[in-house]
Design goal:
The complex is a heterodimer. By secondary structure, chain A is α+β, with helices and mostly antiparallel strands. Helix content of chain A is about 35%, strand content about 10%. Chain A has three domains: about 110 residues, Cytochrome Bc1 Complex, Chain D, domain 2 (Orthogonal Bundle), CATH 1.10.760.10; about 80 residues, Cytochrome c-like domain (Cytochrome Bc1 Complex, Chain D, domain 2); about 50 residues, Roll (SH3 type barrels), CATH 2.30.30.100. In chain A, strands 4-3-2-1-5 form a five-stranded antiparallel β-sheet, with no helix packed on it. In chain A, strand 2 and strand 3 form a beta hairpin. Chain A is globular. The two termini of chain A are about 30 Å apart. Chain B is globular. The chains are: A alpha+beta, B mainly beta.
């Protein structure tokens, strides 16, 4: 109990201290980041942060910078403060000027996406396509609705940058992670298991089968395993117009279950 | 009656163990020299000066290894890869945990006698996590390097510090992560910081007082031989760090140090020349720090191919001539045999897919084949192997190492400005994957999901015949492996990997004899010891130090 009280007290102190650092950043309208800042932030990230946080920002347990999962920070100012002060026994303090700090925060908030070329359309129209003629809900699940055989997209807006989503829609096979390839396994007893691979090691394979069951297979019980290189999802390049794809990307970016 | 007898035995055992704790014999330098004569102990980082990670214990055999059972687990409350290698002396284990704690553990039960906590300065900067690889022992004193560049001496009975001396400035990126090497009355350490533009060095300290006795810079200064392998001021921030415990030949009185990458890591245009003694082995006289010879594996390196492996000392019959050799499975993907008396190159063979060089010439120099911009280079930035301890068995005559095969990176050099205390990388390396955008093999595994596959590379333990450079066998793993390797006099090989399986293999054939699914990444060197006539094998998986022994 005393420990908890102490913890609360120190959190209180941290909150009190926050306003004092309000000049850390060059912009005072969080959420608005210029393409230039995002790009410069990427360079700073690679020079200063990448060694510990990793290329995808998820190398430190409990932190996923790209997806906005932090241990301490909520606001942009919080982020800037953590960067400039460091954390006790953990991250070192970085002495950066306000423009550099702004750029790094922008890069983190933009989900590490420095590409300016992706067209993002109208989310409401995209939703209609998703639920209607795009037939996405035949396989995908969003917010508890739809099947589980294809990946659940409820938080895809934080998990993937627009450019990646666009490519996944146009050419699903090119965007398919090798680990998620469809597999067909014939067991020694003749039973067949089909599904989407989730994880694999030397002795076992984990997958979700066609009946949406999580199945773990021991390789010594396997007669044959085929891993398809083609995605089970149809390619939408040519099926949907460029502006329909842009709308779909816009809708997917709104899926940020949290 | 029977019960009373059992009681008596237990009480007697407790009394004996208390007594034996009180009568711990000092670890003299003579005992360190003859470590192989007390195989129940594991008193240096690699289990002996020759760097073999090979034990003379024989209780666990290929026939009974299937009867190994869990004896105890020591959990670590600190997250991150646990790279430490325990030492065991007369039933007591000493192990470090992040960032710079030391634990004294009853090697039989896993229970802790004391915990020493070193408070690391907030000035410490390390590239790759708060790693420490263990302690050294001399007399009744333990020695540990720290993340903020200090060397501390700790009383092994009380767990209190005896002295603490600064070795390198942490604000400039100097840190010590290796287990120190004791030679005679000296403690030898090297400095890490190869990603911060340090000027690497190796230094010796008086074990009694901590007084510095000599210092050898791994980058020659003005007027010193080899200085002309750097241009302008590039030598001042050229890296060449040292972060793995060297081997030592007492008869030749030479220590063999693997030296890390030149800096900036990925942009060699900023440091024209061979960049000695980066990516080299340097043979130093431990009394004076004088350089006896050097051999550079990867001159002018753009790929971060540190040579921080343990060089293994083996006496070979090389083409009919008895030869004192040093065996080196290098991060650059080649396995080398050198004459350890003079550094003469004897042979080199690739052990994984390599395309950065087409081969090694007769003098031991690589024939570079730089890949076009944007194209993958094999092996990738983490190398064909890395600091993971190899093993050599004088019985099988084979050298065993953990390898990353078929693994590549795309290197992107950029100009970096040296700013004291900041990363000095000169660009970066992007994990290469067969499908654009798919994850390639990365530095560590962050989650239990392995989201790269064999499409990006695979791990393996490879047994190499040093006389031919040929692979005798390969034990493939799906994910890559950061595990060290241990062999025993019963021809067992213990190894692990990122998947968290701990294996006993037949050291002659590579056949899997036993495995345990421990769950967490194995990123240290397994070791073995005996207490009260029982042989134990210890390994770290994830956040747990786990020991096995035969069923009672």
């Amino acid at each position: 109990m005393p420990f908890r009280a102490l913890l609360l007290a120190s959190v209180g102190l941290a909150l009190l201290a926050a306003p004092a650092s309000a000049q850390l950043l060059t912009v005072d309208h969080p959420g608005q980041y210029t393409q230039e800042d995002i790009g410069r932030g990427g360079l700073f990230y690679n020079a200063n942060c990448f060694q510990c946080h990793g290329r995808d920002g998820d190398q430190i347990s409990g932190i996923d910078l790209r997806r906005g999962l932090f241990r301490r920070s909520q606001s942009d100012e919080d982020l800037a403060q953590t960067i400039t002060r460091g954390t006790p026994g953990g991250m070192p303090a970085f002495k950066l000027d306000p423009a550099e700090l702004t750029a790094i925060v922008a890069f983190i908030r933009a989900g590490f996406d420095t590409s300016a070329s992706v067209k993002v359309g109208d989310a409401a129209k995209g939703r209609a396509i998703f639920q209607g003629n795009g037939e996405c809900m035949m396989c995908h699940r969003v917010a508890g609705k739809g099947p589980r055989s294809a990946p659940d997209l409820s938080d895809i807006g934080i998990a993937r940058a627009p450019a990646v989503l666009e490519r996944a829609i146009r050419e699903p096979t090119a965007a398919l992670l090798p680990i998620n390839r469809p597999v067909r396994i014939v067991m020694r007893d003749g039973k067949t298991v089909r599904g989407r691979r989730l994880n694999e090691d030397t002795h076992t394979v984990q997958l979700i089968d066609e009946k949406e069951r999580l199945v773990s297979v021991v390789k010594k019980d396997v007669r044959s395993m085929d891993v398809a290189k083609e995605s089970a999802m149809p390619a939408y390049a040519g099926k949907l117009t460029d502006s329909e794809i842009a709308d779909l990307v816009a809708y997917l970016m709104t899926l940020r279950r949290q | 009656m029977k019960r009373r007898f059992v009681y008596f035995v237990i009480v007697a055992a407790i009394v004996t163990s208390v007594l034996s704790d009180r009568t711990l014999a000092q670890v003299t330098s003579d005992r360190l020299l003859r470590a192989s004569e007390e195989p129940q102990n594991w008193i240096t980082y690699s289990g002996g000066y020759a760097g073999l990670r090979h034990s003379q214990l024989t209780q666990i055999t290929p026939a009974n290894v299937k009867n190994l059972e869990l004896k105890w687990i020591l959990p670590n409350q600190v997250f991150g890869a646990w790279q430490s290698s325990p030492i065991v002396v007369d039933g007591m284990m000493y192990i470090t945990q992040r960032p710079n704690d030391v634990l004294a553990v009853d090697a039989k039960t896993g229970r802790v006698f004391w915990q020493y906590r070193y408070v690391v300065s907030p000035d410490a900067r390390v590239c790759c996590g708060a790693n420490n690889r263990g302690v050294a022992i001399l007399g009744d004193v333990l020695y540990m390097g720290t993340l903020d560049g200090h060397l501390v001496a700790i009383d092994r009975t009380s767990g209190r510090s005896l002295w603490d001396v600064p070795v390198g400035d942490p604000k400039l990126g100097y840190s010590i992560t290796m287990a120190p090497l004791i030679v005679k009355d000296k403690v030898l350490v090297g400095s890490g910081g190869g990603e911060y533009g340090i000027r690497g060095f190796i230094a010796a300290f008086d074990a009694k007082t901590g007084k510095e006795l000599w210092r050898f810079y791994t980058i020659p200064g003005p007027g010193e031989k080899g200085h002309d392998t750097w241009s302008d001021d590039s030598w001042k921030s050229g890296g060449a760090s040292v972060w793995v415990t060297p081997s030592y030949d007492p008869a030749l009185n030479l220590t063999y140090w693997g030296v890390g990458n030149p800096g900036p890591d990925f942009n060699p245009d900023q440091r024209p020349g061979d960049n000695l003694y980066s990516d080299s082995v340097v043979a130093l006289d431990p009394d004076t720090g004088a350089l006896k010879w050097h051999f550079q594996f990867s001159p002018h390196d753009p790929y971060d191919y540190d040579s921080v492996q343990v060089g293994v000392l083996a006496d070979l019959n090389w083409k009919g001539t008895p030869t004192k050799a040093i065996l080196w499975g290098n991060r650059n993907g080649f396995f080398y045999v050198l004459d350890r008396t003079n550094g003469k190159f004897l042979s080199a063979m690739p052990f994984v897919k390599v395309n950065w060089a087409s081969g090694i010439d007769e003098k031991g120099r690589p024939i570079p084949t730089p890949q076009p911009a944007g194209q993958p280079t094999w092996p990738g930035v983490q190398g064909g192997t890395n600091w993971y301890s190899p093993s050599y068995s004088p019985r099988t005559g084979l050298f065993y190492l953990s390898a990353w095969d078929g693994y590549a990176s795309v290197f992107k050099p950029e100009t970096s400005q040296y700013v004291p205390g900041r990363n000095f990388l000169g660009g970066g390396a992007i994990p290469f994957a067969e499908t654009a955008g798919a994850p390639g093999v990365r530095v560590g595994r962050a989650t239990p999901i392995n989201n790269w596959t064999d499409a990006a590379g695979n791990g393996a333990v490879i047994a190499i015949d040093p006389l031919t450079g040929q692979k005798k066998w390969t034990f493939k793993q799906f994910d890559v492996t950061d595990s060290g390797n241990l062999t025993t006099a019963t021809d067992l090989l213990f190894t692990g990997g990122r998947e968290g399986y701990f294996y006993a293999l037949d050291a002659r054939t590579g056949a899997e004899l036993w495995k345990a699914s421990l769950g967490g990444q194995i990123a240290n060197g397994p070791m073995t010891y005996a207490v009260d006539g029982k042989q134990y094998v210890a390994v770290i998986s994830g956040n747990s130090l786990i020991t096995f022994a035969l069923r009672d």
